[in-house]
Amino acid sequence: MTACGRVFDIDLGSQIHGLVVKMGFEDDVFVMNALMGFYGKCGCLDLVVKVFDEMSVRDVSSWNTVVSCLVKEYMFGEALDMFREMVGTDGVGIGIDHFSVSAVLTACSEHGAVMEGREVHARAIKFGLERNLSVGNALIGFYSKCGNVKNVVSLFNRMVVKDVITWTQMISFYMESGLVDMVEEVFDKMPKRNCVSYNSLLSGFCQNGDWVRALPMFCRMLEEGVELDEYSLAIIMNACGLHEDKSASEQIHGFVLKFGFGSNDRVESALLDMCTKCGRLSDAEEMFISDSITQNSSIIWTSMICGYARNGDPYQALSLFFKGQSENIMIIDEMVLTTVLGLCATRV
């Protein structure tokens, strides 16, 4: 069952389910938990619930599987209801573990269930689970979502063991709270940094309008040999564009081309945006018409249309828009629609 779940083999897994019934293993909680885990991996929530309802004996793993599957399917209210049933209305239901707490705290965060989240925190303390790493990370995520600075900092300071997720959550939280000066201090204390950590920092600088700090931090990222992803490049190109730093944009552009990162439409779109924001419209045009760029991508055409618009060339923007429509390339989204309507109003 575990193997089937890992390769998403629903046909073989269903046959094994039949074998389970035929051989009379339906009363074996271990087998039935594996069966629910398999259906959960394959996204078959209805079958997870069906197996759960038919179980004669359940343990904490049985309940955890259903709760986590509900969370995975964004059914946060239902996950909270299931957790309440799990612990019992009188609080003396089946015991909980770190997995239960972590899963239900995610549901509380996404559902905006502040009081329920605090109750789960109290249960975690009661069962001695607060010091567990995954529970601590889930609690920081929950209180971050609530905007509770005091509780987030207190939890972070009390955690005996911290991993890269813990530190990255703190960076994101400080950035979202506008506490930019505290972020680099936390970042420098991290024993290990990865691409996600750096991306959170770079993105936070942009969100807080502190674009000047983004470029040196990107250089530090390269010096430490951290593996980049397309999000890293999109962030730093956005920072250059917002800062309208032509020189830096040329350096970043050269870096992207040199190392072959410009091979997908998101990176190419970010390059076009950066060029048009930094007064390099001719470079953007040259790139747009070249064979090296993805010509049938709506996001690429949208970037070029917006680029013409921001550089005061409404006729080219509208011409490109109508061409994209006639060739069935353009997907009308909020950005391009707002841009085109604004151009039409300007012409009128």
UniProtKB/TrEMBL annotation:
The keyword Repeat applies. It comes from Tanacetum coccineum. Pfam families: PPR, PPR_2. It comes from the Eukaryota. The keyword Repeat applies. This is Pentatricopeptide repeat-containing protein. InterPro entries: PPR_At4g14850-like_plant (IPR046960), PPR_rpt (IPR002885), TPR-like_helical_dom_sf (IPR011990). Keywords: Repeat. PPR repeats lie at residues 28-62, 163-193, 194-228.
